[in-house]
Amino acid sequence: AVVAGRRRTARVARDLDAILSAGGRSIAVATRRDSFVNGQSAGLDRAAPHETMSNLLRDERVQVLVSCLSLRRIVNYGLGLDSCDVAAIMDRRIDSSYEDVFRRGLDVIARASRGTVVVSAENKLARAALNALDATRVILVASDPDHPAIATHASAGGAVVTKMSGKNKKRDRIVLQRNDEVLVSVPVARAVAK
Length: 194
Hints:
Elements: E1 2-4, H1 9-22, E2 27-30, E3 35-37, E4 40-41, H2 49-58, E5 64-69, H3 71-77, E6 84-89, H4 99-112, E7 113-120, H5 124-129, E8 138-142, H6 148-155, E9 159-164, E10 173-178, E11 181-187
Helix pairs in contact: 3-4
């Protein structure tokens, strides 16, 4: 799995690590600053990112690799992997000074991804760049279930992740659905003020 973007990539990688580990998988995580196998340091902190990923992929314990990369690094140095099964693009909005790098990095990811690409419905540039992919390979994420791109994508057969409001706020859920079928539904965690 590749988590690409300028912000929040390590947090998403740690969340993926927790979810996949709970399912009994042996997970390696490579962030910009460090690397772990099953929650323990891999001792590769000083290695170049591509060297780190290569070493983690050779580790016999590793069943899944979650890698964090910036799109600028991908453009300048490549993905560091032949392919990936899933890619998540973290940037929701792109300023004009970053558009060219973003497009080129996204092109590398789209060509390398064998499976699903997850992107924000708010990211018009990413949606346009991924338009050539089969809609069933793209998951759009939006906090607003009424975002216009969500309905368009869902009608093309694509999966969507949205927040669904319950009758009372304690029942709000994050829902992954395709063709009006709920595939996954989890309660929204609420912060408690102290």
